[in-house]
Each structure stands twice: as structure tokens, then as C-alpha cells.
């Protein structure tokens, strides 16, 4: 039986209340300084006072609330199990005598089973396993009795109801008012009657059949409402007259669940002033819990002992009332089962889970993120420094990630780690992190700059403490947290303290953490078991802002927790629709541009106004023929997944550690995995490369965006967009240098070199400039992206030709072309403004004009040999940053002198990264190879954790796209020449192919056979091809560098069958130079046929790729 509810003690006089407060303060002060006996004496005095007050002003216990009623119905196992086997036929008429009614019912059920056309049901009816009877047995004065159909088990009953809903048999539907449902509990029947009243009232109000009943819930039909049946408005449901006022201003509100105060201190949303404001919107029964003015069970500051009349008074503080502007701790949670989204919640919603390796739960995390939680707290992430944020974020910018990973070594195994995903509107900022033996901790602040009250920020501390954590590590953790505690401080995490009784604040042994919680007056809000029979996962706070702590979908063997904070959620940003260029009508756009008379329109305009005319004309076409995106309030997951998630949530709320909750969680996880496999299969079957790359980017690449909080140069924290924009503008202006406007020296004509002259621009040059642009949807000041020029290149040549030549002849540039969208790009993970660099996004038309001019000027300078051979770049006139300059000494004979810039000594380093390659002072690349191999292995792990398909093609394409470039970038410089390093790199592909065969259930084979089946050449072979291609371009002059120190052309005096005129030889070289790319390729280059060495780079590449790897690499270093 459920526990009896207990009313709060009554404070009949002010003197009694003052005495209780005084005793509480005395108890709190003396608790740690006096013997246990004196503390017990104080508690005894409080109990006696409570009994005295109870006699003077007794109150009857409040009636059961919705949550308790549902608990009572479920705990009555015998009655519930019988109802689970029954279905109810409502509205079936009775005959004049019981005998005729029984015969009519038997015939109707036989016809119904025959119409359902299910062999198992028909056989069960024939065998007598389906029984039926009228309820109640005695008709008395009832007009109609329901027909109850009894099955042998719940599975058969569910199959029967499912067939009725899908086939809609005429045996039931031909008589108005007839329907079949499951047998409801008394409380569910009450909800069903109330929902029927709601449906009737709403249908009458809108004049159509738009609402109905499913089980005990009010539902809305899809599509256009059907006309009301004849006489519908004159046949109200039972109990309709009992409803005095039914003022429904919002048809989407469910009026079947009402808040009833029952003498308890309720908290309602003050924004609702109409009668429907007392209605809980689309809540399931277990989510509706009235708020009483007592501390919830499991609170660290106090609890109600439901097994006796004793009330344990809170030790740190007493709360005599709840503010009317805050939601009560037991206020209803947002409805997950209706829309499954929390983005419309009026308060900050949090989700906590012990993930136990988030690598394996990325699909679950993606679903949780789609629900719209503001904060997601994860323990036991099992991530390392080699793992990117793609496990947590994906490619969407919906969250900002903060991590503290466990540092693993030979003595410390994998595990641990914490992570916080925070919505950017909360303005999160990392305060500190902590790591010790078996403990990881992360502390962040969330800010509310728009709130005028005192609560402008909340500090959140996420902790994971392993069960084997030492006492010294716990002491270090508490010392770390103590100075960080603020006015609103919340601790959440897996603390692993199973021995603490959070109801009575006791522990079998001396527990420093319990003392720490009491000293800082924190409340523990988790009152359900999170793993086995213990409360291991905790939510503690020193202020009364934690609301609605409920169990949620588990990620592993710990029950997850969802709760909210009594702080208004930040408003959603204004939705700015974007153009959907993939749905644009490019044919109509091009046709209208071509048919426009540009000569007449632009001939009388100067270049400034001509540019404005062209931009406005093109944007008007895009507004007309390019659809725009709209904000979708629904999740992108299918409906059956959302329904299954709602059932799992309901089971977890009622009984977090039950077999039913675990079963629903497994069913949901399997269904989610199957959904992911189907998405991957559709992408693979579509044969669309863009769709494949988009899917891989979503799963494998993390978004790169500026952190929400920026630290200015003066150390202040910037939160609003306006403050950030002003600070970035000021900083970028301070570090940039204005262009020099010195007068040009008069040119001295050369008798041999003609003057540079570009009289006009041709259409061919414009088409070449457009072709050089990447066809993407980029941002630009004129709102005309590259994809527009690529799709309409032939039609816009005419207006661009007029505008470009006007600019060339008038020696002026339109002002719009000089504008840019400046985007700050973080160079490191730091929030300091000095770590950002600006990127200017200019107009695409500016880039086209610029490319044409650069091409002509460069061609002129190269044709007349005006470039200095040693020039590696142009002078930018930018100041040097001494802190970013490093000295590396190469060779033993290099003087170890100290170098200074502007009086600042430069640091000396054994290695430095130049253009992505780690250059060591020994000119070895062991460290660089180790680093790229580590990154590649982490990316391989990410691929196998983020994809579920068994199609080998998906994995091999993902490997070629996202892993192999990590192992091949700059390989001409660092390609290994030792067996150890070559096998170290090849081991990445060897391990990948082995895991792929296991995942796709392909029989085991050796490495050469595996890569042959996957059409993957060895990485050594691909590095050799890169060397050959680089040598080919170097010889043909595609790369400008002094190659005389590397090789010399030395054609043979006589012609040979396997020789050519571009044969090379090595100059004198030291023995240690055998790692040079020319040394690696000279033998293979000299034996190539003359036909191919003189071909273009593309034809030469095709020829090299066609050569078999075995014949091309006879002296392989690999261990196959």
C-alpha cells in the first residue's frame, strides 16, 4: 500500500514559530561542536514542541495527489494484472433478456474476430481462451452496460486492440458511439471521462470533429476537422453538466487534469490570467504533482519520514513559504510525451547521465540534444585528449562543450571524465577544472545578463568520483571547491557515496563530504535510487532553485536525472530565415537575367550606381525564386521513436530501477540504432556524394564557433553580442596597420620591357574568374553567394562585363566591394580576445574582379622575368609578435646564440610546427609521425563509434575522406625511410581494415587481401605516388624553388628504350640525405616512358595511378 500523506506541522502562534527557529539555529551551531547526546536532546525538544502544536491545531491530511493515485494503482498488482488482460466494448446495446443479450454478444464477438482475420484470435475464441461478460453483473437502473472481453495474457489483448485500430471493423464502427478500448483503472477512468468532456466541448466550439480520446488522453486528429455527426451537440457526455465553467481559449490545452489546491501551498504561472491557466498542458499522470510546503524526501536539509508521524526538521535552514514568482520544487515538468521538445520551456532544463563511454552513446546523446535541454551533464565520458568534440557536439552549433578528461597512463586505466554541454544563450564560461586520483571536476558559470534581480549567474560544478578514490583526493577536491562556492552553487555528479543516508544526514563512518554539504547548507534533491539500491548520483544546491527532479532515460547502468532550475530560460534568438539554394529555380533566374537589357540599364550610370542596380536586381530575383527556411518546432526523429521514448520516460518516472523501465530503455536504444542504420543505408543507396559527405561531417566533425563568453584585454567578461562586436572591432583595429599611401615614383620606360596595360576585360576572363570560385553558399555583404554566379554564369557575363570595364576605365571601385563581414576565428581554445584572428568575407564579385587583375599582373611580371627568384612573399607591413617567435638550432655546428627582437629574448625550442609539419632540430620526423598517427587512430575510433551500418563502402569512403589526409599531408617532406616508422603509419590502415571486416561480418583474411577487397592501396604506395607527382611538377616548372641542390637534368647521350630527355641525376649528397624525396623517386622516374613524363599533370597522374602497386614498389619497407 502507498504511504499515507503527512501534513506539515501547523504554526498556530508567532511565539511557537519563533521558538522553532531559535531551536533550529541552536542545533545548527552546536551540531559539530557538542557531543551526540546534546544534539539528540535538542531534537527531542523539537519533537515535543511539534506534538504540542499538533494537538492545538490539527489538520486533516490532504487528499491524494495525482502522482500518489497513480502509484497506488500500480502498487495494486493483482487488480492491475487482471485489467491488463481485458478489453472493453463500450456502447454495445443490450437485448430484452439476459439470455438474448448473451447470445447477441457471442455472435458479435465471433463476427468481430472473423472480420479481424487473425488466425490466432479465431483459434483462441474456438478454444474458449477468450471470455466475455457484461459489467456490472446486475443491470439495476443502468441504461447500458459495457462488455468486458477477457484474454489469457496481455500480449493477446494488445494484438486484439491493435487490429481494431488498424482495420476499423464495421462490426464496431457501424453503430454510432461504439468503440473498443483497454480496461482502465478507476483513476484512469476518471481521467478518460474528463478528457471526453474536453473533446466534446472543443469539438462543439470549433464546429467540427477535431479532437478525440485514446485510452485516457485527449488527442487531436490530423488533417481538416470532419463535420459533426447529427445530434452531436445535443448528446453531451456524462458529467458535462457538473462543469460549471468551461472557458477554453486555447484548443491545444488539455483540461482533463486540474490543479486542486486542497489546502496546500500551490505555485501557478502568473502569466495565465484566464480560467484555463489552472490547467496542466498535456501532462501524463505521473508528471502532475501538487506542491506542498514541505521538503522533498531525500533532501539534505530535511525530509518527511512517511513511516511514522515524526517530522525531521531541516538542520541548516527552514523554509516557511515559497515565493510566488518561482516554480515549486515539485512543479510539473515539461511534457516529453506530447511534443518531446523542451525548447518552449519557461525555465532552464537540465539532463544528467552517467554515460560510461560516450563514444558508444553518441546516437543517444544526439536524441537527447534534439529535445532542447539547456544543459547536458555527463559523467564517465571515457574520452581522452586524442578524442575531438565531435563525440559531444557533432557539426551543429547548438551547444558549447566543456570537458575534463582523465589522464591515462600505464598505472591509470581508461574511464572517468566529465563533460558539460551548454546552450550558448546561457552565456557559459569555464571557471576551473580539477583532476586527481579517481576524481574529475568541472566548474562553469552560466549568466543571465537580462535579469534585473540578484540572481545574475549560477555556478555549476560537475564531479565524477570513482569508488576507489582515496581520502586524500577527496580532501583535495573539497579544498578546490570551497573557495569557488558562490551565492547560487549547484553540485551534480556521480559521487559514489552509497553509505550516506540523505534522509537523516547520517553515515556509518566519518564522511568529510557530508560535513562539507552541511557546512555550506546544501540540499540534496535526488530521492530515488540511481543504481541498484543506492543513491550514487546527486544533485545538491545551496539555494532553493532546483525543481522537478525526476528519473530519465538511462545511458548505462545508472538512472539518468532530469531537473530544472527556477530561473527563466533565456529567450530564443530571433529566427532569421535563410535561402534554400538547393531548391532554387535557377532556370527562371537565368532566363530573367538574360532577357534584361543591361546595356540600356547601365549605360548612363557610373560604376557605383551600376553596381547597386545589379545587386538589387539579382537579390529581387533570389527573393522571388529561392524559398526560405522556416523554424520547425518538431524533432527530426520519426514519430515511433518519440512515442517509444515517451513510454520509456513514463516507466522510468514510475519505477526507475524496475525491469519494465530497463526493458523500455533497451527497446528504445535498439530502435534508435536501427533508425541510424536506416539513415546511413539511405545515404549509401542514394549514390549522392554530397549527402554522404554531409552525413560524415555531421557525425565526425565538430562545429567551430566562438565561445559565448569573451575576455577583453582589460580582463572583463563580455556576454552580450553588442559588447563582443565593439570589443572585436577595437582589438582588430589596434593590431592592423593602415595601408601606406606614399606617392609612386615615376616609371622609367625600358627599351626592352613594354609597359603594363589592360585596356578592357573580356567575357572569357569573367567566365574563368567565376570558374575559380567554389560553388558554395557563402556569406557576403551583397547577399549574392558563389553558387549564384556558378549557376547563372552565362547570363551574368553581360552585366559584369559592363561593370568591370566601367571600374577599370574610371579607376574607381564600388563602395560595396570594399565592405566585408569580419568573422573572428579562435586560434586556440582560449576565451581571450587576443587569441582571435579576423577573417574578411568579401563580395563574390570582388573576388572575380580581383582574380582577373591578379592573373593579368602576374602573367606580365613572369613573362618579363620581373620577380626576384628569392622572393617568397610580399611585404605586408605587419608588426612582429615576439611571443610567437621561436628559435630552433639545426646541426651540431650551429652557434647557440641568444636572439632578441625589440629587446625581448626569443625562446629556444627543440621543435617547431611550420605549416602543419612538426620540424625537429635533428631533422627527424618521429614526433610528427607519432602525432598524426595518434590523430588518425582517434578518427578511426570515431568512425566506428558514430556509424552503425554493415556496408563496407561507407567505412572505406569515410576512411579515405577523413583519416587518410591526416596521414598524407606534407608527406613529401617527412615520408619515413625506416621500417619502424613506415609500419607505424601503415598500422592505422591495417587496424582499420581488420575492424571493418569484423563490423561487416566478413571472414578474416590477411592485410594484403583485405585492402585488395576494399580497393585501398597501401599508404606507402600513395606516399610514393605523391613524391613522383611532386617531382613531375617541379621539373615542369609548376613549383618555383631552387632545385639545383636537389637534382639536375642529365639526359643520356644515346637513346634507350626505357629512357627520356628529362632523366635526372643527384648532385653530391651526404649519406644521411637518403630520406630526400628525390632519392626516393629517382630510380622510378628515370625508367618511365617519355610519352608520360612529357604529359600534363592530370594525364601523368592518371598513368601513375594505373600502375600496379606491387610492381611499382618492389623494395617496400612494410611488414605485410
From TrEMBL:
MF GO annotations: catalytic activity
Pfam families to which the protein is assigned, alphabetical: Exo_endo_phos_2 (PF14529)
InterPro entries: Endo/exonu/phosph_ase_sf, Endo/exonuclease/phosphatase
PANTHER family according to UniProt: PROTEIN CBG08968
Protein name listed in UniProt: Endo/exonuclease/phosphatase domain-containing protein
Gene name of the record: WBGene00277978
Amino acid at each position: 500500500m502507498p504511504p499515507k500523506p503527512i501534513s506539515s506541522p501547523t504554526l498556530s502562534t508567532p511565539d511557537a514559530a519563533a521558538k522553532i527557529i531559535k531551536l533550529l539555529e541552536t542545533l545548527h551551531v552546536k551540531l559539530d561542536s557538542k557531543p551526540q547526546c546534546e544534539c539528540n536532546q535538542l531534537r527531542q525538544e523539537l519533537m515535543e514542541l511539534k506534538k504540542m502544536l499538533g494537538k492545538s491545531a490539527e489538520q486533516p491530511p490532504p487528499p491524494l495527489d495525482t502522482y500518489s493515485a497513480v502509484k497506488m494503482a500500480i502498487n495494486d498488482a493483482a487488480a492491475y494484472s487482471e485489467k491488463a488482460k481485458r478489453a472493453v466494448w463500450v456502447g454495445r446495446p443490450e437485448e430484452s433478456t439476459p439470455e438474448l443479450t448473451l447470445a447477441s454478444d457471442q455472435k458479435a464477438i465471433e463476427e468481430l474476430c472473423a472480420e479481424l482475420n487473425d488466425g490466432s484470435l479465431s483459434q483462441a475464441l474456438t478454444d474458449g481462451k477468450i471470455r466475455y461478460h457484461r459489467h456490472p453483473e446486475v443491470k439495476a437502473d443502468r441504461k447500458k452496460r459495457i462488455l468486458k472481453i477477457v484474454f489469457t495474457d496481455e500480449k493477446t489483448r494488445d494484438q486484439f486492440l491493435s487490429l481494431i485500430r488498424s482495420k476499423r471493423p464495421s462490426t464496431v464502427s457501424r453503430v454510432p458511439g461504439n468503440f473498443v478500448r483497454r480496461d482502465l483503472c478507476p483513476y484512469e477512468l476518471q481521467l478518460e471521462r474528463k478528457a471526453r468532456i474536453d473533446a466534446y466541448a472543443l469539438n462543439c466550439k470549433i464546429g467540427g470533429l477535431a479532437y478525440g480520446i485514446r485510452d485516457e488522453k485527449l488527442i487531436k486528429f490530423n488533417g481538416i476537422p470532419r463535420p459533426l455527426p447529427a445530434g452531436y451537440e445535443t448528446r453531451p457526455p456524462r458529467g458535462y453538466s457538473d462543469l460549471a465553467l468551461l472557458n477554453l481559449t486555447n484548443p491545444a490545452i488539455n483540461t482533463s487534469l486540474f490543479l486542486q489546491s486542497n489546502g496546500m501551498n500551490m505555485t501557478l504561472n502568473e502569466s495565465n490570467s484566464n480560467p484555463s491557466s489552472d490547467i496542466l498542458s498535456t501532462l501524463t499522470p505521473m508528471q502532475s504533482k501538487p506542491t506542498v510546503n514541505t521538503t522533498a524526501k531525500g533532501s539534505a536539509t530535511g525530509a518527511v519520514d512517511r513511516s511514522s508521524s515524526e517530522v525531521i526538521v531541516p538542520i541548516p535552514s527552514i523554509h516557511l513559504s515559497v515565493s510566488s514568482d518561482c516554480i515549486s520544487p515539485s512543479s510539473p515538468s515539461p511534457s516529453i510525451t506530447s511534443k518531446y521538445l523542451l525548447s518552449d520551456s519557461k525555465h532552464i532544463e537540465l539532463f544528467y547521465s552517467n554515460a560510461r563511454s560516450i563514444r558508444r552513446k553518441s546516437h543517444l546523446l544526439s536524441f537527447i540534444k534534439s529535445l532542447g535541454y539547456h544543459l547536458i551533464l555527463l559523467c564517465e565520458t571515457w574520452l581522452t585528449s586524442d578524442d575531438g568534440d565531435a563525440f559531444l557536439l557533432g557539426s551543429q552549433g547548438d551547444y558549447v562543450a566543456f570537458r575534463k578528461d582523465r589522464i591515462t597512463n600505464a598505472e591509470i586505466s581508461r574511464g572517468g571524465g566529465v563533460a558539460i554541454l551548454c546552450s550558448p544563450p546561457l552565456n557559459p564560461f569555464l571557471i576551473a577544472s580539477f583532476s586527481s586520483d579517481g576524481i574529475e571536476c568541472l566548474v562553469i558559470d552560466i549568466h543571465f545578463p537580462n535579469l534585473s534581480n540578484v540572481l545574475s549567474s549560477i555556478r555549476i560544478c560537475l564531479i565524477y568520483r570513482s569508488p576507489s578514490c582515496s581520502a586524500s583526493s577527496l580532501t583535495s577536491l573539497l579544498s578546490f571547491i570551497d573557495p569557488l562556492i558562490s551565492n547560487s552553487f549547484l553540485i551534480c555528479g556521480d559521487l559514489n557515496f552509497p553509505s550516506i543516508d540523505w534522509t537523516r544526514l547520517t553515515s556509518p563512518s566519518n564522511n568529510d563530504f557530508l560535513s562539507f554539504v552541511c557546512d555550506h547548507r546544501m540540499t540534496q534533491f535526488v530521492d530515488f535510487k540511481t543504481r541498484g539500491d543506492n543513491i550514487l548520483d546527486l544533485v545538491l544546491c545551496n539555494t532553493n532553485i532546483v525543481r522537478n527532479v525526476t528519473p530519465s532515460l538511462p545511458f548505462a547502468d545508472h538512472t539518468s536525472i532530469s531537473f530544472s532550475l527556477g530561473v527563466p530560460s533565456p529567450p530564443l534568438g530571433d529566427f532569421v530565415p535563410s535561402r534554400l539554394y538547393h531548391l532554387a529555380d535557377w532556370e527562371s533566374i537565368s532566363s530573367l537575367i538574360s532577357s534584361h537589357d543591361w546595356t540600356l540599364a547601365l549605360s548612363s550610370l557610373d560604376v557605383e550606381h551600376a553596381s547597386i542596380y545589379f545587386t538589387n536586381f539579382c537579390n529581387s530575383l533570389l527573393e522571388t525564386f529561392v524559398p526560405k527556411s522556416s523554424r520547425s518546432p518538431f524533432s527530426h526523429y520519426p514519430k515511433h521513436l518519440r512515442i517509444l521514448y515517451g513510454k520509456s520516460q513514463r516507466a522510468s518516472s514510475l519505477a526507475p530501477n524496475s525491469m519494465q523501465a530497463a526493458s523500455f530503455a533497451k527497446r528504445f536504444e535498439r530502435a534508435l540504432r536501427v533508425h541510424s542504420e536506416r539513415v546511413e543505408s539511405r545515404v549509401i543507396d542514394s549514390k549522392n556524394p554530397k549527402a554522404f559527405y554531409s552525413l560524415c561531417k555531421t557525425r565526425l566533425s565538430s562545429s567551430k564557433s566562438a565561445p559565448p563568453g569573451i575576455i577583453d584585454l582589460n580582463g572583463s567578461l563580455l556576454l552580450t553580442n553588442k559588447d563582443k562586436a565593439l570589443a572585436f572591432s577595437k582589438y582588430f583595429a589596434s593590431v592592423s596597420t593602415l595601408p601606406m599611401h606614399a606617392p609612386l615614383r615615376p616609371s622609367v620606360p625600358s627599351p626592352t620591357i613594354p609597359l603594363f596595360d589592360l585596356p578592357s576585360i573580356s567575357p572569357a576572363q569573367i567566365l574563368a574568374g567565376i570558374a575559380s570560385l567554389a560553388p558554395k553558399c557563402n556569406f557576403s555583404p551583397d547577399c549574392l553567394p558563389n553558387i549564384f554566379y556558378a549557376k547563372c554564369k552565362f547570363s551574368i557575363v553581360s552585366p559584369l562585363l559592363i561593370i568591370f570595364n566601367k571600374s577599370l576605365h574610371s579607376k574607381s571601385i564600388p563602395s560595396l566591394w570594399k565592405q566585408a563581414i569580419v568573422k573572428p576565428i579562435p586560434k586556440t581554445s582560449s576565451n581571450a580576445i587576443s587569441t582571435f584572428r579576423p577573417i574578411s568575407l568579401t563580395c563574390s564579385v570582388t573576388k572575380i574582379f580581383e582574380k582577373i587583375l591578379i592573373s593579368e599582373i602576374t602573367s606580365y611580371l613572369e613573362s618579363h622575368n620581373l620577380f626576384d627568384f628569392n622572393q617568397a612573399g610580399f611585404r605586408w607591413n605587419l608588426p612582429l609578435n615576439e611571443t610567437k617567435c621561436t628559435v630552433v638550432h639545426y646541426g651540431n655546428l650551429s652557434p647557440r646564440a641568444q636572439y632578441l627582437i625589440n629587446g625581448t629574448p626569443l625562446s629556444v625550442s627543440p621543435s617547431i610546427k611550420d605549416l602543419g609539419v612538426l620540424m625537429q632540430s635533428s631533422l627527424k620526423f618521429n614526433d610528427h609521425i607519432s602525432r598524426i598517427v595518434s590523430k588518425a587512430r582517434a578518427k578511426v575510433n570515431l568512425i566506428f563509434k558514430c556509424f552503425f551500418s554493415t556496408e563496407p563502402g561507407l567505412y572505406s569512403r569515410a576512411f579515405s575522406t577523413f583519416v587518410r589526409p591526416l596521414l598524407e599531408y606534407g608527406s613529401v617532406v617527412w615520408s619515413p625511410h625506416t621500417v619502424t616508422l613506415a609500419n607505424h603509419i601503415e598500422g592505422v590502415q591495417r587496424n582499420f581494415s581488420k575492424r571493418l571486416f569484423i563490423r561487416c561480418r566478413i571472414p578474416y583474411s590477411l592485410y594484403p587481401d583485405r585492402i585488395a577487397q576494399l580497393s585501398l592501396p597501401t599508404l606507402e604506395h600513395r606516399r610514393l605516388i605523391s613524391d613522383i607527382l611532386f617531382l613531375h611538377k617541379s621539373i615542369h616548372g609548376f613549383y618555383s624553388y631552387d632545385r639545383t641542390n636537389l637534382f639536375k637534368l642529365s639526359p643520356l647521350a644515346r637513346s634507350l628504350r626505357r629512357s627520356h630527355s628529362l632523366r635526372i641525376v643527384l648532385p653530391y649528397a651526404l649519406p644521411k640525405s637518403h630520406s630526400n624525396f628525390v632519392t626516393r623517386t629517382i630510380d622510378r622516374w628515370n625508367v618511365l616512358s617519355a610519352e608520360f613524363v612529357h604529359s600534363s599533370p592530370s594525364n601523368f597522374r592518371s598513368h601513375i595511378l594505373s600502375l600496379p602497386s606491387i610492381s611499382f614498389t618492389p623494395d617496400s619497407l612494410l611488414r605485410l
